[in-house]
Amino acid sequence: MESIDLLVLRTAHDWLAAGHRVLLATVARTWGSSPRPVGSMMALRSDGRVVGSVSGGCIEDDLVHRHTSAYGGQGFTDGPPERVRYGVSADEAHRFGLPCGGTLELILEFSPSTASLQQLLTLLDSGQLVQRQLALADGAVTLSTSATPQPFDCTSQHMLNTLGPGYRMLLIGAGALAEYLATMALFNGFKVAVCDPRPEHMASWAVAGVEHLKGMPDDVVRAFRSDARTCIIAVSHDPKLDDLALLEALHGPAFYIGAIGSRRNSQLRRERLIEHFGETEHSLERLHGPIGIYIGSKTPAEIAVSVMAEVLAAKNAVALPGAVNVSQAKGAKESAA
Question: Residue 78 contacts by C-beta under 8 Å, 6 or more apart in sequence?
């Protein structure tokens, strides 16, 4: 499953290429609570079809009624981008389904350039991080590749949005937990790959849309070329596979690195990596283990929910409280017993 950004851009391009008129809306600013963060996009076709989201649904409905001929709206203009604001008053916020006090500002682009969108998609599909700058005076778009993401920015002159590459997950081990994790990662917009040199494990893999990578896990991690939008999770339960893969991962920029295991096994892993591979307590600070947040999970599906929640928190730069840390929560539970 593609990320929602890619889905919106690709659909907008395909609609334009097929001769439809298209409006591209981007969340430019928010005040108070808001359903969608800045940079969120939706594409609206002139007949009322929508992909993507800028709110919980009411603002999308208003845009459809205002701008599509299907509902007697004014239609799409050929002018420069427009800036519109929703939820300025409490009554308006309530009308559009915004949270209490929420205000949302959108930038509307009317019939963006098909050629520019094609160029953008080509860069994103090749794994590039791309900055898309929109001139608000005339709608001109400038694309440039970048090594590091830049924060979304919207001034009176321009809107700058950093796009791609998509988030990736590499799983070491092809058991039931990996299948549940892969499924959850796919519907969260991750591109997922799995590596397991044990043929009997790979033979039973049943999740479509996941890339199968052959080789020993440490070699695969090295060739995977992780970046700041990559997470690497070892779930094979075999130290010969997990440990070497983790060593390679820890020397890269992945935003999340973790390994399945009990508190005791996680501690033994740390001791092995320090004693036999020259790691230190400091170098192992990025290694999550036991992985996941504490929800009392027992089954592979529940454990996958726990792990995916921790991965998404790391992706979104959310610091989790100690109460949901597996080691701390289980320790506290045992002390209270």
Answer: 110, 111
CB-CB contact of 20 with 75 (8 Å): no
Above 90 in pLDDT, residue 319?
no
Q: What is the pTM of this model?
A: 0.74
Looking at the fold, whether 152 and 8 belong to one and the same domain comes out as: yes
**Residue 181 and residue 278 in one domain:** yes
Tell me which amino acid residue 190 is: F
- Per-residue pLDDT band for 55 (boundaries 50, 70, 90) equals confident
Contacts of 215 (CB under 8 A, 6+ apart): 195, 197, 223
The verdict on 25 and 45 lying in the same domain is: yes
DSSP secondary structure, 261-305, as one string: --HHHHHHHHHHHHHHH---TTTTTTEE-S-SB-S---SHHHHHH
**Distance in angstroms (rounded) separating the CA atoms of residues 243 and 241:** 6
Helix H or strand E segment including 159: strand 158-163
Single residue among 118, 148, 163 that ends a domain in this structure: 163
Q: Total domain count for the chain?
A: 2
Residue 289 contacts residue 261 (beta carbons within 8 Å): yes
Q: Are residues 128 and 174 in the same domain?
A: no
Confidence grade of residue 92 (pLDDT, cut at 50, 70, 90)? low
Angle at 314 between CA 310 and CA 319, to 5 degrees: 90
Last residue of a domain, one of 163, 188, 223: 163
Instruction: Using DSSP, state whether 5 is helix, strand or coil.
Output: helix
In the DSSP assignment, the letter for residue 120 is H
